[in-house]
Amino acid sequence: MNLPEILLLGPGPSPVPPEVLSAQAAPLLGHLDPAFLSLMEGIQADLRTALATANPLTLPISGTGSAGMEACLVNLVEHGDRVVIGVNGVFGKRMAEIGRRAGGEVVEVEVPFGRPLDLEEMQHAIDDGPTRIVGFVHAETSTGVLQPLDDLLGRIKEAGALSVVDCVTSFCGAPIQLDALGIDCLYSGTQKCLSVPPGLAPVSFGPRAMAKVAERASPCPSWYLDLSLLGSYWGSERVYHHTAPIAALYGLATGLGLVLAEGLEARWQRHTKIGNAFWQGLTALGLEPAVEAGLRTPMLTSIRVPDGVDELNVRKRLRDVYQIEIGGGLGEWKGRVWRVGLMGHGARMSSVVRVLSALADALNVEGKSVSASEAIAEAERAFGD
Amino acid sequence: MNLPEILLLGPGPSPVPPEVLSAQAAPLLGHLDPAFLSLMEGIQADLRTALATANPLTLPISGTGSAGMEACLVNLVEHGDRVVIGVNGVFGKRMAEIGRRAGGEVVEVEVPFGRPLDLEEMQHAIDDGPTRIVGFVHAETSTGVLQPLDDLLGRIKEAGALSVVDCVTSFCGAPIQLDALGIDCLYSGTQKCLSVPPGLAPVSFGPRAMAKVAERASPCPSWYLDLSLLGSYWGSERVYHHTAPIAALYGLATGLGLVLAEGLEARWQRHTKIGNAFWQGLTALGLEPAVEAGLRTPMLTSIRVPDGVDELNVRKRLRDVYQIEIGGGLGEWKGRVWRVGLMGHGARMSSVVRVLSALADALNVEGKSVSASEAIAEAERAFGD
Fold first, then answer.
1. Listed residues A261, A296, A325: the one ending a domain
2. Taking CB atoms and an 8 Å cutoff, what residues of chain B touch A24?
3. With bands split at pLDDT 50, 70 and 90, how would you rate the model's confidence at A5?
4. Which residues of B fall within a CB distance of 8 Å from A79?
5. Model confidence, pTM
């Protein structure tokens, strides 16, 4: 392997701290070794702390964030269940698709990319039948919209439905008080604000979600993702299910340790502050976030591609000349936005400075006339405030 | 993390070479970075070489070996398909369970633990209806039986059914000539004779299996494991599906490189030779393999626990005094056998010597009177032949 060193400022994976990288290189223990079982317990305890939950069933699924999404839906949805999914980007669409494959009668409540869900439309769809499950995305990775949680979760609870929340991009970067909010079921990924390589998907199931799993008439269609089997392996019984991805779990344990050592509040604030600084710099470059302030995630910003600028050329220049990865648009925003992630270990002023100055250069190559130093000065001013 | 260093001689994971461990600590690339896409292509090419196949759809599933099992079955099995599964251990049972959850009409053809499948019984079950899929395990990890492939695969083909073969424990340790044998669908894991940490599951689908996937009336019930979507991500289109487990794939690329540098023939012979040497040492200790010679896998040996010996005490002594992990029995062999794996990086004389001498000490503690040095001498004699 002879790999270039790239600063990862796309929609994920984010840069991984050296402590996590080297933890993944530790010699393996057996997956049923007592020392490894202790490490698993530590991971569960740290996940509960990071999510502010007491849910016993809080564990990392042995797959990527999408496996976490699938795990939540295939365990909760039974054939014919009415499932309402809020769709304001690619990942809401994916929830709907997985819900249908799981046998659900899925109702999609769609709004345009860049908008948060419409609460009245959601309410209407939820009330329009005996709705069992309502899914939506907290931080839409395809747009960078941060969905306000309180009101929507309250309506779902009031309707007697179960909430499933995608926290892939928000976990460890924005507040998620699972128990206080009354979220029934949540999944995340490791490669965003947690800054651990992709490959694991933390999930948490609350008591009402567990009750639905326990009352299933037919077994979960997936054996690999069956929560009742996973719970027996991760629980005190330690019933062998599959061989856990040991090296990846070393990385997760270390990454969670770093998050808790920094402190959750401090980490959330860091993301907010760095996101703000970046936005000020963007404005100075004449660039415009595609999501309005107040609805925007601090950790992931979609930027409108200005008229006359070649979207792909800019990304290629950043990658090849400056060794910086940023993302392109997905779905209906393909070719229309760049996505810049300032997540986890990458949420720092050195990233902001590097990406602003590279963007400035790329825009100048594209015929714009912008000043890197002004943009950096604006970002630094905002950061200092 | 403050982890003990344990020699992994159980049923997996096996010890991981330092090159693979350090590859996993390399800084991440983005999952759509051109350099990462090249690495993915290299992995696919090396997997094809290691399996002696030209199947385009040869790739690592982003999950453990059991996810590979599930991927093969949920893509191939449609509701109502007749599925015959040969069961001679825990992993055959698991195939049957997953086949049922996928909607198959599963017929289990069972023989006792420690026996290979009965070809006449398999033939009878296959002929007893329009059988679409026949699944079985090449090297049963719960017993250490190596199923002869040729005759059984011929019968499956003749009946017009598709074969699904579990090669989790045999891959890179025993010959698998996928195309020459005419296997339709195969899955494996990384943590056995390949000596890469658990977390990925190489699979390969041949033309007849791909045709069945393409002709499905309903989509694959799993979105995460949907071969048509995975094929578009790993294929030339590079359509984003999920974020690949990048660090784990660095490990896999490096591990496959080591296998091919050693040479497949040489690696298979090493496993045979080391397994033989170990068996000679066991005999000298008065221990008896639970599977008869000729049916036994060289990489994993089940050993009968002698009368009057506490199975668990011996394993604990090996773990705590000698820092060696061996496995206990599963299913109907729970408490009745030990399972010793000499797999991949662990298939070497130093492992044989360490485990024989530790077993000798543990047996003496249990009141037997055996000689470590005699056992080691026997193993070395067999190795030298």
1. A261
2. 21, 24-25, 247
3. very high
4. none
5. 0.97
